[in-house]
Amino acid sequence: MVMRAPKKGEIWYIDPDPTKGKELRSPHYFIVITDELLNKALGTALCCPISTGGNAARSQSVTVTLDGNSTQSGKITGVILCHQLRALDLEERQAKFATKAEDYLIDEVIMKLVDLIDPQ
């Protein structure tokens, strides 16, 4: 079965394993950062994991808070770990669509990523 290309702002349940060291492991929700056309062309999507922990990351200001009002379903909460950005093949990892984030949230994540790459 061929899965559709993920869209920017969608949240998928993905198992990122295998991982090493301090990389987030085990199944988690991930938010897609890249546009659907790019994801389709490359076969991968840039994604940031969502965690209910992440205290060290929170203290370093590399997270974006996801509350019940941030998604269409209102069921996924935690913090988006922007410093754990990964390219993932959602089809090979048998990802499952969960919900869509509100536009303002994905904009905030992208701004945080830009700040991480090019701090002012």
TrEMBL record:
One of its GO terms (biological process) is mRNA catabolic process. It comes from the Bacteria. It comes from Haemophilus haemolyticus M19501. The lineage of its organism: Bacteria, Pseudomonadati, Pseudomonadota, Gammaproteobacteria, Pasteurellales. This is Putative plasmid maintenance toxin/Cell growth inhibitor. It holds the Pfam family PemK_toxin. GO terms for molecular function: DNA binding; RNA endonuclease activity.
